[in-house]
Amino acid sequence: MSTAMTLPTDLGAKTAKPKFITVEEAKTLDIKRMYELFTAHMNPGQLHFMKLLGFHKIKIERAEGMYYYDQDGRKILDFFGGFGSLAFGHNHPRILEARRKFAEEKRQEIAIAFLSQYATALAYNLAACSPGDLDMVFLGSSGSEAMEAAIKVAERAAGPARPKIVYAENSFHGKTKGVLSITDGPLYRGQFKLVDNTVRVPFGDIDAVEAAFKSDPAIGTIVLETVQGGGGIIEADADFWPKLRALCDKYGVLWVADEVQCGFGRTGKFYAFEHYGVVPDVTALAKSLGGGKAAVGAMIARRDVYMKAYGTPKTAMIHAMATFGGIGEASVTSIEALNVLYDEGLIDNAAEVGDYLIAELGTLQRRYPALLKEVRGRGMMVGLEFHDFSQAMPMVLRPVMSALDDKLKGSLPGFVGSHLLRDHGVLVAFTEYNRNVIRLEPPLICTRANVDEFITALDEVMSRGVVKIVTDFVRAQVR
Length: 479
Ligand SMILES: Cc1ncc(COP(=O)(O)O)c(C=O)c1O
Known about the structure:
2 domains; seven-stranded mixed beta sheet; 20 helices; about 15% strand; PyrdxlP-dep_Trfase; Aminotransferase class III; amino-acid biosynthesis
């Protein structure tokens, strides 16, 4: 009797299995246990901020559309939107279905050995919704990876005599070391040894750009977010962009538009640069490109730029896709995401409901001028800037309080955000550089009714006035 073809299920493994948590056990971890695990194995310092805002008491059990649902079944309206990663809201049914079918059909995932029908289709779709000859696509797994690909393709195309990159004050392009070198946050730069071929200019200052191009022929690339997200939702004047395009053409500098946060329909056009009738040489997308379910980033370059950089068999592998670039289920998720974006008119919805949101916030700003300094943004990328603490205080306290403004920056929006969450079940986002800014990047499926719900909550919190906002916060901390 032959047993050669029968594989025993127990291979007599000698390697002992560690005491793992299973998937089902993971789902049932309670707050206390998650807190312990985060402290022991992840980022204990980060808990400080989560505790201040009250985030550490919430366990999300489910998420659907515009809402999270916590351990007590409470709904939380999501105006944070994962910093722009949730254009479709949570668990969009068409995106779930595409993923489910793909898994059930046991399709292939890794796109390295053979041509992938999914990666090639996604590349085609991205070229189809990108203007001009932005036709060549590199797929990765994050915004940082897409932006790394962007600065590398530009540097190769610019040639070895022109390796310098111009970037902007208050920029954010990611945390991997290449793009960290053109990210303007001292906190993130963290005294790392970064690449030194960079030149910093004020954002939106065309004269500074021209002065840099003129004075340094080694500059080959300029990298700019079309709308600065981490900087606090900052736009350049509309005429900056055509002037930038003209300057880049004149000096032979390649323009990389970082659309990781502001792209994918968020501002009411697929790319934010489309508002200005110009096309960059290279761009990058991530966040909602993954449909809120997959980690996908893409660099999209003009064909001649790409071909100069990697167009021959000898150069093709210099920056070919990484292991997970174009992976099957992620690509299929993005293909479906792009189809849903247009089928459901979400770009137009971002423009229309975004206008409504900004108008309603303007009304609140006029109602609470001592608290709110400015409302700005476009579509569903909105910044709500609060005054420094001293300016929001009663007149008699201002001179004393103003000495503390720097230290207290960000605390007023922090207090307001924590009240919104605790008392109204509304989630908002904060901002890296200008901490006085609350960032609103709700899913693009957001309706006027969702905006009304949000505005009613914000109105109630601001109607308390600054003193009660502070005392309520302190009371909640000691509770
Ligand atoms: C404009 C911009 N570029 C790049 C990135 C980096 O993306 P990721 O966090 O996916 O690496 C971000 C992330 O917030 C971003 O806002």
